[in-house]
Each structure stands twice: as structure tokens, then as C-alpha cells.
Amino acid sequence: MSRSHTHPIQLRSVGSQDALAPLPPQPAVQNPSSHSWASLCGSPPWRLSCLLALQHILVLASLLCASHLLLLRSLPPGGLSFSPAHLLASSLFSCGVSTTLQTWMGSRLPLVQAPSFEFLVPALVLTNQKLPLDIQTPGNSSDMLHLCEGPGCHNLELWNTSLREVSGAVVVSGLLQGMLGLLGAPGYLFLHCGPLVLAPCLVVAGFSAHREVALFCSGHWGLALLLILLMVVCSQHLGSCKLPSCRWRSASTSSACSHIPAFRLLSVLVPVACVWIISALLGLSVIPLELSAPTEAPWFWLPHPTEWVWPLLTSRALAAGISMALATSVSSLGCYALCGRLMHLPSPPPHACSRGLSLEGLGSVLAGLLGSPMGTASSFPNIGTVSLIQAGSQRVAHLVGLLCVGFGLSPRLAQLLFTIPLPILGGVLGVTQAVVLSTGFSNFHLADIDSGRNVFIVGFCIFMALLLPRWLREAPVLLSTGWSPLDVLLHSLLTEPIFLAGLLGFLLENTIPGTRLERGLCQGLPSPFTAQEAQMPQKSREKAAQEYELPFPLQNLCACTPQPVRCLCPLPEDPGNEEGGPAAEPGETANLLPGFGEQCPRSSREELRSL
After folding, report:
1. Contact 439, 387 (CB under 8 A)
2. How far is CA 319 from CA 160, 253, 404, 488, in A?
3. Most Cβ neighbours (<10 Å): which of 222, 278, 448, 575?
4. What is the pLDDT of residues 494-522, one digit of tens each?
């Protein structure tokens, strides 16, 4: 075992070869002692890729368990007309299909699709407001659910109606999200989102899951703390320790790697395996009864829409679906920007954002038709895992999609995956959410955080995004308008923290006057080429921009694409940009107010570095 003291080389993923090629040396923009987003020194071998994919499956399992468990606990005591293993298998199947499509022809980023918490909030609002007052139970009620074993099972119709209505809301959200992507609205709005819009969203996204993490860890704090301790030690204290492995040569570089930072790369899989074994030896089995079945699930099962009843489309489901689509769109755009930065790629272009959201909508439609109460969206905890292990790869994302499809075709395997004790899943979710929170804070340095304008925007967005949901939970009667669909829409939108942070940040950032340097658009994420990317050679920039293009078999289809959906295809290259990068029009990426598109002067810190 050796410890490397050399300066790390910044690496990023490379196209269809899925290699991680080194970037040219960059000027120092941060503390040299801080960790860079260093990754592997080439395309990882298949055995290591399988381990990394299994690691992402564990993070995905924590999200699936949290969303389904909290939703099932919000329903009244009654019966299920089908096994929970089938419900989890259908969700895994839709997540696998959506992940494969997203990585292949969507945003082309290594993003894992999962049922995010933005689907859970409207679903809880929809189910709780539907129930009579005398049988309503809080979201964290300890009432246990049981399978319906006969025709006399109580509240069975109420169960089926509630789940059908939630599935109908998921279908509506997928259709609306797909339509927004086809119209190109996400790509246009993304051009007007600076670091002061992205950073509050990431901070609020990290904070938004603290109650679920505490609920899971409360089952056994000893297991949860042990898991968190091992993850911290493996990823941070032993992160630079390298172990010898089989030598392999990268397809894009001439260097060969014989040592890998195994502790950092497997900082989720190894701690989970150790704590899971310890809990089994001690007999500490903390498994939710809501997700367990008294009978064994089948080994093979083909998900299809006619397995159960069709989703129920009502005016209330339409209102909840609208709030789901808006919240998940904000969340996914933040995931695209964050993942692009972690992979050392340019900011995602508008066509990549539009394609990504369209395919996410398709995945949610598939999930709703299969009877799942949760749709699919880009997963913040999985991006936190990429940041934690400092490695990301399209090959790994493809393997995650294939594994999810495999688990979805076998309810028995899906049920085995969710036998992991809840404190372990809570610890995994807590560490990955903490990394997402820290990446949000790291984006503040891109703007002038000493500016009074920026200080107000950041503080106001974060505080209000956390205050309004808590206020509405304490006094839900304030939104009683007398019309149930409107109550569901308003209550769902105003209790979505990440939607509130994105909406407030977008409005304040684009209406309060400020210079581009002050707003961070000179080196921020949404600019076509950031300050760091401007130092890259033209060929390197072109190669990086190709990461977001359609795969080769689909590139020829752009010529015959109808004009309304032409926004999904890359724009033709401007011949005048061969030397100096993209020649954007004045104010093209400025705010919505006129007169604030001036050029960016050099900051005092940049002048000091040049001396």
C-alpha cells in the first residue's frame, strides 16, 4: 500500500470510449491543499465498474426505501392487493430503463435515475387530503400495513384508489415534463441560471432529507454511526492510499495504472458490507414491515401495465402531477449542472437539458403505467456518491441501468436488496446528502459573495425555502380555498423546498440589477465556456462539447427532425468561433433586465495571481 504525494491530475469522461482523459494543467483557482475532482487514470476495468455500479445500487436502494416507506405509512391501516416486492420491482425496472436512456441519448451524463423526494411531497399531500379526518395518520405513524389475505380485508378499495391516484399524478408529471423538454423551455431557462440560482438549490437539496435520515437512523443509532464513521475514514482519511491491482492500459492515454485508490472508490460498498455483516452476526435486523411480505416473491416477473388496475386520472391527480413536474425539473437541471462540473465538462447546452428532461418524463410515464407511486428523476444522492469517490463513468451508469432492470424482472432479488437494515440505508443517505450540501456551498465562490446583493439573494432563498414548508406543515388550514385540486397544487408547490429555492433564486437573480462579474457569470456554470474552460485549447473544448451530442446512430436524424422539436439537436458550429470560442451576442446570457450585459473585468484576485 502506497500513499501518493504527487499533484493530482484532473480527469473527465470521454465519449463513447468511456475513458477518463487528463485535462491540460489549469491555473490554480483554489487552495492547493484541497481535494480536486480527480478520477481514475483511464477507463476502469469491468470488474471495478461492476463494483462501482453495485455501489450506486445501494444508494438507489436508500432512496427507494425512503420514498415507498413514507408513502405507505401515510395511508390508512388497510390491505395491499399485491406484494410490496412487486411494487419495488416495478420502480427498479422503470429506474433502469430511464437511466439507460438518459445516459445513451439524453443529457449523456453519468446520471442515475431514481424516485426523488420531489415526487414524495405531492404524493403525501394527495393521500393525506383525500382521507377522512377520523382516519388520517401522520407521515411517520407507526401503524403497520399488512397484505390483504381475503375478500373481507378492510379499506382495500381506499388503498387501491389512493395508489392509483398517485400513479395517475406520476403519469401527468411525466407527460408535462416531456412536453416542456420538447418545447425547449428547460434549455432556455438554464441560460439564465447563474451560480446564485444553483448554489441555493443544492444547499436546500442537501438539507431537505434530514428528517428522513434521522427517521431511518433512529432504528439503531449504533449501526448508523458505525457506517458513517467507516465511510468518512475510507473516503477521506484513507482516500489517497492506493492498493496494487491488475495493470490495465487506458484506451485514450498511453499510461498504464497498476495502483488504484480502492478505499476511496469503494467508500460506500465496503462500509455497507461490513456493517451489514456485523448486524447479521449480532441479530440486529431492523427491516420495515411495510416492505416485507409474508410469502416469497417469484424469481421472475415481467412488469406490464395490465398487471394491476390502470392509474386513476382526476383533477386532484392533475394538480399533484403539475407540482411534481415543476419540482423535478428544477432538481434535474441542478443535477445536470453539478454533474457537468464534477466531470470537468462545459456547462450542459440547451439541447442536452431538453433531451434529458424529455427522457426523464418518459421514464415517469412508464413508472406510472406500471403502477409505481414514484416517478424517475436525476438522483442527488448518486451525484453525491460521484463527488465522494471522485470518479464517474458512462460505463458505470449503463451497468447501473442494466442491474436495475435485472432487479425489476425478479421481485425475489428486489426483496433481497431491501433486507438491508434501515439504519444502514439512513447512514448512506445522510453522507451522500451531506456531500450535495457541501457542493452547494462550494459554488458560492464563483460569484462575489461579499456583495450585498448576493448576500441577500443567498440568505433569502435558503431561509424562505426551508421556512415555508415548515410553516405550512404546522398550519395546513391556511391553504384551504374550498376547491380540493387548488389546495393540492398550492400545498404541494409551497412545501417543495428545492422548487422554492430555484424559483426565488431565479426571480431575484434576474430582476435585481448586478454586473456579470458580481453575479459570477464570467466563470459560472451557465456561461457557454467558463473561465477555466477558456484556458483549454480549442480541440479540447470541441472534444468536451461532443460529450453532449447525440450518439452516432441518431445524429443523422437531426436533419429530418420537425422544426418544433429541433431544440433537441445540437446547433451547427459557428465558423467564426474557431479561434476564440463561441461568439455570443451581447447580453445573450445576461439577466432578463436590459442593460446588464457588459463585459467582465478582471477581478482583483485574478490580477494578484498574474503577478
Report:
1. yes
2. 19, 52, 30, 6
3. 448
4. 999 999 999 999 999 999 998 888 887 76
Give the phi and the psi of residue 179 in degrees, each rounded to 5.
-65, -40
Candidates 420, 592, 600, 574; CA nearest to 513 is 592
What does the alpha-carbon distance between residue 105 and residue 67 come to, in Å, rounded to a whole number?
27
Q: What is the pLDDT of residues 272-294, one digit of tens each?
A: 999 999 998 888 776 666 666 65
What is the DSSP track for 278-336? HHHHHT-----GGG--SSPPPS-----GGGSPPPP--HHHHHHHHHHHHHHHHHHHHHH
Inter-axis angle of helices 452-474 and 497-511, to 10 degrees? 150
DSSP state of 245: E
CA gap 172, 492 in Å, rounded: 15
Question: What cell was used for 23?
Answer: 485535462
Distance of alpha carbon 19 from alpha carbon 38, whole angstroms: 13
- Give me 598's grid cell: 457588459
Cell 482523459 found at: 21
Selection from 377, 376, 368, 370 nearest residue 167 by Cα: 368
Amino acid at 604: S
The sign of the torsion formed by the CA atoms of 366, 372, 375, 381 equals: negative
Q: Which residues neighbour 514 within 8 Å (Cβ) at sequence distance 6 or greater?
A: 451, 453, 454, 591, 596
Higher pLDDT, 550 or 170: 170
Q: Could you tell me how far CA 150 lies from the centroid of its own chain?
A: 40
Length of the chain: 611
Per-residue pLDDT tens for 214-242? 988 988 899 999 999 999 999 999 888 88
DSSP characters for 100-140?
HHHHHHSS-S---EE--HHHHHHHHHHHHHHS-GGG---TT
* End-to-end Cα spacing for the chain: 40
Are β-strands 146-147 and 79-80 bridged in parallel, bridged antiparallel, or unpaired?
parallel
- DSSP assignment of 154-189 equals TTHHHHHHHHHHHHHHHHHHHHHHHHHHHHTHHHHH
Residue owning grid cell 386520472:
313
Place of cell 477558456: 534
Average pLDDT (468-495) is 84
Contacts of 568 (CB under 8 A, 6+ apart): 181, 182, 184, 351, 354, 355, 358, 561
Contact partners, residue 495, CB within 8 Å, separation at least 6: 121, 125, 468, 469, 472, 473
**Rounded average pLDDT over 133-156:** 40
DSSP strand E in 35-118: where?
Answer: 79-80, 113-114
Q: Rounded to an integer, what distance in angstroms lies between the CA atom of residue 499 and that of residue 324?
A: 10
Cα separation, 265 vs 578, in Å, equals: 38
Grid cell, residue 245, equals 491491482
pLDDT attached to residue 272: 94
Q: Residue 366: in which H helix or E strand, if any?
A: helix 350-369
Element (H, E) at 470: helix 452-474
Written as nine digits, the cell of 496 is: 417543495
